[in-house]
Amino acid sequence: MNKIEHIGIAVKDIEAANSVYKSLLGYEHYKTETVEGEGVTTSFFTCGESKIELLEATREDSPIAKFIEKRGEGIHHIAFAVDDINAEKERLKAEGFVVLNEEPKRGADNKWVVFLHPKSSHGVLVELCQEIN
Ligand code: ZN
To answer: Degrees (nearest 5) of the Cα angle 112, 113, 116?
Structure first.
């Protein structure tokens, strides 16, 4: 793992959250992107070497909508940057982590992403992400 690439935060209203995080960080988000396959609209803020990713559901059956229904708004996942997502996935499987998607998916912000089940990591959904070249 290279660094914490971003922290994903589930929000009900991305416009309202953008405004709050702008106040918190002291600057604007740098992009907004919808990933239809995941049913989310995302907004990214930089913070040093890492980022904050705000996530709003685009439909009722979105994983983000379900998360908010169960647990309310808040931290949804931690994403780690990796150089070789398939090698890391295999390493973590061998360590006993449960991989949610065997095939890396195209995520927001030009990344391949693989998720690990929160039960493997004390309640935290883990995302591995690799820059798409
Ligand atoms: Zn993420």
So the answer is: 160
Strand ranges across the sheet with 111-116: 31-35, 40-47, 50-57, 3-10, 74-81, 125-131, 111-116, 105-107
- pLDDT tens, residue by residue, 80-124: 999 999 999 999 999 999 999 999 999 888 999 999 999 999 999
Instruction: Determine the distance separating the centroid of ligand 1 and the alpha carbon of 95, expressed in angstroms.
Output: 22
Instruction: Determine the distance separating the centroid of ligand 1 and the alpha carbon of 113, expressed in angstroms.
Output: 8
Displacement of CA 90 from its chain's centroid (Å): 20
Q: In terms of Cα–Cα distance, which of 37, 42, 34 is closest to 18?
A: 42
Give how far Cα 43 sits from Cα of 15, 79, 90, 97, 120, Å: 9, 15, 30, 28, 27
CB–CB of 50/119 below 8 Å?
no
Residues with CB under 5 A from ligand 1 (ion): 8, 53, 79, 127
| Residues 107, 113: Cα–Cα separation, whole Å | 6
In the structure encoding, which two tokens stand for residue 35, read together? 């990933």
- Average pLDDT over every residue of 50-67: 96
